[in-house]
Amino acid sequence: MADVPSSLQAEAALNDTEPGAASVNGTVKFVATLEGAAVAYGSLVLMALLPIFFGALRSVNCAKSKNSSDMPETITSRDAARFPIIASCTLFGLYLFFKIFSQEYINLLLSIYFFILGILALSHTLSPAMNRVYPTNLPNKQYQLLFTQGTGETKEEIINYEFDTKDLVCLAFSSVVGVWYLLKKHWIANNLFGLAFSLNGVELLHLNNVSTGCILLGGLFIYDVFWVFGTNVMVTVARSFEAPIKLVFPQDFLEKGLAASNFAMLGLGDIVIPGIFIALLLRFDVSLKKNSRTYFYTSFLAYIFGLGLTIFVMHTFKHAQPALLYLVPACIGFPVLVAVIKGELTELFSYESSAEVLPHTPRLTHFPTVSGSPASLANSMQQKPNSPRRRRTNPSPM
């Protein structure tokens, strides 16, 4: 399955709908009340925090897993340095596509792709919960889906999926959500897929050390600022791209309920990019064996501060903001300051997350087009889906 460009996910695509009545060329513009905006932005913040918190916790178990199907993808400094360049090329390519070709057909193809990818991501997300709630008195049969090529001694396994009844239940529920999204494009279905993408990204994409995290966040800091403030490319693509690559919440929810249609939105990249750095700090906390989560909670609170500042500035200046402009300094600066105060700066930057993962952990050999995007998740899900699960017979080298 080829990578799908989704560069706009690195964007802080928060809706810049202005509160207050307005009329442009005789067209009445939506009026966002203060209460409606507060509910929308508060919901976005809450939805952003959930996949970061639980994804970080799951990343610790993922790193310690001895099951090769659950191994994380490791992002190296070289990968991190290439991220902004490839993301920029992809973003501009999407911009040209939307300018040249019919937006309707492009979004139809992307909808089909994210329909499949979303089902896999949501199934993987629900799997741990299903293991806890599945009735013990019901049968849980084991299945295997095996594809080979060749015959006799030359026979080679191509795909070897192992799954059970619990996995099929997760897959069935995820398929219902997928059909709902494909047919209705409802914002709740969009958010279910978006949350699944974010949680899987934080869980399965691992930075190998803090220096790599600084390179990644620093590069995307420049990328985000340039494409939002320097051009109209980012905002144009964000508004044209119909796919669950952003979380949305209606600002008219109090008036129209589930039928509301005027959305504030937050790109998944503004969740996953800081999220994988926060998850790295949690694994560092665990490695210290001090029964403390100082760096994790510091960075988590820094993320809340940075996202809140983004919303405040956006609401004040009535213009879409690059969230990484505020999130990157906060998520890097606060933990580094704590490390300086505690005298653990050397330990922080010398920590190698990949050292705690088994030697056969796959490196990020297929570079995703957008950090933390469904494209990067596609690589992860192709190599190690949990629902259904696949046993890797030829793991990628480091």
From TrEMBL:
Q: Which UniProt keywords apply?
A: Endoplasmic reticulum, Hydrolase, Membrane, Transmembrane, Transmembrane helix
Gene Ontology molecular function terms on file: aspartic endopeptidase activity, intramembrane cleaving
Question: What is this protein's name?
Answer: Histocompatibility (minor) 13
The reply on keyword Mitochondrion is no
Task: Please tell me where this protein is predominantly located.
Answer: endoplasmic reticulum
- Renumbered to this chain, the Polar residues biased-composition regions fall at 369-384
What is the membrane topology noted in the UniProt record heading this document? Multi-pass membrane protein
Cite the InterPro entries for this sequence: Peptidase_A22B_SPP (IPR007369), Preselin/SPP (IPR006639)
Show the Pfam families listed in the entry.
Peptidase_A22B
Positions of transmembrane segments: 38-60, 80-98, 104-122, 189-207, 214-238, 258-282, 294-317, 323-341
Q: Quote a single Gene Ontology cellular component term.
A: cytoplasmic side of endoplasmic reticulum membrane
Region annotation (Disordered) maps to 369-398
Can you cite a GO biological process for this protein?
signal peptide processing
The protein's location, in the record's own words, is: Endoplasmic reticulum membrane; Membrane
What family does the entry list? Belongs to the peptidase A22B family.
Q: Does the keyword Transmembrane helix apply?
A: yes
Question: Which segments show compositional bias classed as Basic residues?
Answer: 387-398
